[in-house]
Design goal:
Length: 184
């Protein structure tokens, strides 16, 4: 990585000093690359949510922003923020860094946050529903008719496909439910 940990620490300290004031030219602009659901649950005041899969759509806008203020990339623990950092630096942005320890560290340090509604993550919902389908399919297959064993087979194929392609049909369908939509 091009940004040193010292740079990240200085930007993080500067950000926490300036939480109560209006943004100044050298204050970092927080770009939170988590999902909208994670962002709604807890985020840094004035942070902007740009989910990692959508980051490519905002490169030009981020380039304009970073010409005036440094970008401080945020995720839960740093993993997605590091991916975003690599993508942005490879796209020519030079005034960005990763928030050390992510939002988890930020919260643990008692820094100011905006807290919203706690929800089950989309991944958790997919796992719970897939597990339920498998249990029901096996149970019905062993007690009612062996044809019900097709249900866990279909779920297993779907999970395998999701793992190999990083695309989950069940997750996409669940994200459309009102429970998973962000209320404005």
């Amino acid at each position: 990585m091009h940004a040193s940990l010292l740079d990240q620490e200085q930007k993080s300290r500067a950000a926490s000093r300036n939480q109560g004031s209006s943004p100044a030219t050298n204050d970092p602009v927080y770009i939170d690359v988590r999902t909208p659901q994670e962002f709604e649950e807890v985020h840094i005041p004035r942070a902007r949510n740009i989910p990692l899969p959508d980051l490519h759509k905002f490169v030009d806008e981020l380039r304009r922003i970073e010409s005036k203020s440094p970008l401080l990339l945020v995720c839960r623990t740093q993993n997605r923020a590091k991916i975003a950092y690599e993508f942005l630096t490879n796209s020519g942005l030079t005034n960005c860094s990763v928030l050390e320890a992510g939002i988890t560290g930020w919260v643990n340090e008692g820094k100011p946050i905006v807290q919203g509604q706690k929800r089950i993550s989309l991944e958790g919902q997919v796992r719970a529903i897939a597990g339920a389908f498998i249990l029901v399919g096996v149970g019905l297959g062993l007690t009612v008719h062996s044809g019900f064993l097709l249900l866990p087979t279909i779920v297993g194929v779907g999970l395998l496909h999701a793992g190999l392609t990083d695309s989950c049909l069940m997750g996409m369908l669940l994200s459309q439910l009102p429970y998973n939509r962000i209320r404005k």
